[in-house]
Every structure is written in structure tokens, then in C-alpha cells.
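Let's inspect one such protein example.
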Amino acid sequence: MKPIKVKHVTFGVGTPKIIVPLMGTTESELLEEITYIKEQQPDTVEWRADVFQNVKDLQAVENALHLIREKLTPIPLLFTFRTEQEGGRCPMPLSDYFHLLKTVINSQQVDLVDMELLTDESMLQEVISHAKHRGVNVILSNHEFTHTPAKETLLFRLQKMVTLGADIPKIAVMPQTVKDLLTLLEVTQEANESEQPIITMAMGKLGLLSRLAGEVFGSVATFAAGKQASAPGQISVSELRKALQIIHQHS
């Protein structure tokens, strides 16, 4: 696996890196949340901007980014606007979604940006190229909140992400059975045989094992709850770090 270095954090070396979401709806909530999250010492912080009440105001987004960046330094910052079709909180036309991403990339305040695979391929390719030109790492993602697609579908999507230029492909699924969980873990192990670092997880109670065992199967990062969880099944940073360290010591 070829590691990806983002500031002082290297994805693909050692224990999976812990990413914690910011879920505040206002600037004051975000700043308060950052103070709490920094005490947990995450490897990376994700701003879930679809929760932000002024996300459709690009100037407000840029202002918030500057405040977040100033408070977070030197922790890497991942920007995510999760679309409504993949569990996000704010409906937005695709053209506005990609314009938002380009605005964030141009701000030079973020280290990584999340883009969703199942959107519009031509617009996606344009914004990926723009991010790379600006030196911003790209996480290409896909989230299934109701089921776990077939193994072949998941492997195809991960490979498509690589083909489109993702620095880190990401897949999240909702298992309904233990067999679904095993499918996700098998996909992770097989995809890990390539040079590309990947992030995978199964959500909900059944998926907890996938959040803990990334080092065994090949996922380079995992998400923990800050003041709020951003997806079903996230546990606290302290619980997650303890489990990751135990697995690292004995694997």
C-alpha cells in the first residue's frame, strides 16, 4: 500500500487514523465543538457542512472555514457535504454541490475533501482535477444506509473511485446480517491488495467490528463520535482508540 501523508498524519501506516466529525449548526456551536474535540486528540477532523445552517451561503461557508482552520491547527481538516441521497441533512442541486466543493477547495483552508461517487461523472472529474491542482486530497465516497450491496458491486465502485483519481476511496454500508458484515470485510481485504489506501466501514451495531478491525482487513481510517455521531454505530474516541491500540499490539 502506498501511504498518503496529510500534514503530519500518514494514512496507511500503523493503526487506522481516527476521524471525528464537527456537527455544529452555527459558527458558535462549531467553535464550542472544536474545543471539546481537540481534547480527544483525533488524527483528523471532518466538517459535516450539510448540517451547517448557512451552508448555501458560500461567503458564510468560507468565513466558517477560516475560523475552523484557525482553531484546529495543526490537525488536518476534511470537508464533507453529505448529499441528501446518501444520508445528508440539506437538499442541494448537483450543480450547487460541485460549486460548493470548488469554493471550499479554492479557499485553501482544507486538506481533504469528500466527493460522492454516485453523482455526475463529468462534473466529478472536473472537481477532482481542480482539487489535485490545488493540492487538496480527495476522498471519493459511497454510502448505503439501508443495505449492503453485493461484493462485486462494492469492488467495482472502489475500483471506479481509483480510476477517477481518488487519493482515498471510501465505502460505507448498512449490514442487515452477519453475512453482510463479512461481505464488507472481504471486500476490504481484497481491495487492500492494491496500492491504494482505502476506508471502509459497516454502520450500526452489527458494523462495529469493521470500525475496530481496519488494521487487520486494510481500512486506513475510522470515524468516532465527537459531541454528536455523524453515522449509526460510531463510538467515542477514547473507546475506539483503546480498541485500536489493543489490536495493533497483538496483530
User: Anything to note?
Assistant: The first strand starts at residue 4 and ends at 6. The first helix runs from residue 27 to 39. The chain has one domain: 14-243. The chain is about 40% helix and 20% strand.
